[in-house]
């Protein structure tokens, strides 16, 4: 959507252009979020015409049609146009006067948030009119792609540098370090891979972690759980993960959820994250993280290692994957990573799950260093995406490593037309307007 908006607004003619974004509404980690779901571009000279009091304006017919769609779809109405400039932008007096004359009526028609956006290639400002009659500015515009762009009306000052992060701030800059401090990241699954993710994220200086796992520590976990000890056996896996996060960063904020990912509390916490790491390998975990990521426009990274071992002890080709799923760019269902039968089994009560497994499951082989191969790739991608260090279009690709042959491949997720989850034919960007 941002690519289409940019191509429409920022042309060589340096003229003003406009349109409307219809958006879902959802709670977010720092306040309410508007989730861009549908883009309606205004045609120059037809839908975007010379204004009576300002330079350009959306035509009455265009506004009427877009407003009715917002009402029917229960979506916010956000009119947008461009100004000249790069890192700083704001509304003109004429813009604000037009908002005051028109938005109260549009808000009454839609019953939803209405507002205006003014954009440059690197800055965004918004004037939002809420259903409760409040009027507030837009805090920031986020593009949740391979590079996690964040745009505000003007560059913001960073917090006072902290000497703990001095060496990595030489790479990320104080602004990059400040971005990590403000982020709220969820880690779903705290086994071998998940515990490494927590270690990396906490030591990078991420300010808030949501840790989700309903399992307990067992003796066989100790060789793979970072910082776990014998006294943790029988305790929830969230406990050693939290202890390790606080040891790495005493200022970190944590939410611990000793429940399955499909629990209402876990889903609510996931939906208010800036990024989700999935390190649990059940089909239920994949389904629910996939649903929430696309419904709430949250980038997701699934990590995993597969080590095939035959009954005679022969080790096959090892796969270490870091799969990136960007909102609206293909999902786990589209790519065959959720099996409907296994999903039904995962969602059943424990006794029914055991009865449904006709062949008892054998413990999967696992090695901590191989978990590190997948998790390091995943965290590095997140780090570069969050701080703007990616330099190529490969930022949208997943990675597949074959450690035994030292091969590495880039893969792009596939998307099925009309998918229920990752297209506007389904719940994409619906936020809280559609129940999962």
Which shape, going by the Cα principal axes? elongated
Which strand order does the major sheet show? 13-12-11-14-15-16-17-18
- Distance N terminus to C terminus? 23 Å
Q: What kind of sheet is the major sheet?
A: 8 strands, mixed
How would you characterize the overall build of this protein?
This protein is of the alpha/beta class. 31% of the residues lie in helices and 23% in strands. The two termini are 23 Å apart. The mean pLDDT is 92.
Attribute tags:
6-stranded mixed sheet; alpha/beta; 436 residues
Question: How would you concisely characterize the structure shown here?
Answer:
With 436 residues, the protein is α/β, with parallel strands linked by helices.
Layout of strands and helices, then pairs:
Elements: H1 2-9, E1 18-26, E2 33-41, E3 48-50, E4 56-58, H2 60-73, E5 76-82, H3 93-110, E6 114-120, E7 123-129, E8 135-137, E9 141-144, E10 148-151, H4 166-182, E11 184-188, H5 192-204, E12 208-212, H6 238-248, E13 253-257, H7 264-270, E14 275-278, H8 283-295, E15 300-306, E16 319-325, H9 340-347, H10 350-356, H11 368-387, E17 398-402, E18 407-411
Parallel strand pairs: 5-6, 11-12, 11-14, 12-13, 14-15
Antiparallel strand pairs: 1-2, 1-5, 3-4, 6-7, 7-8, 9-10, 15-16, 16-17, 17-18
Helix pairs in contact: 5-6, 5-11
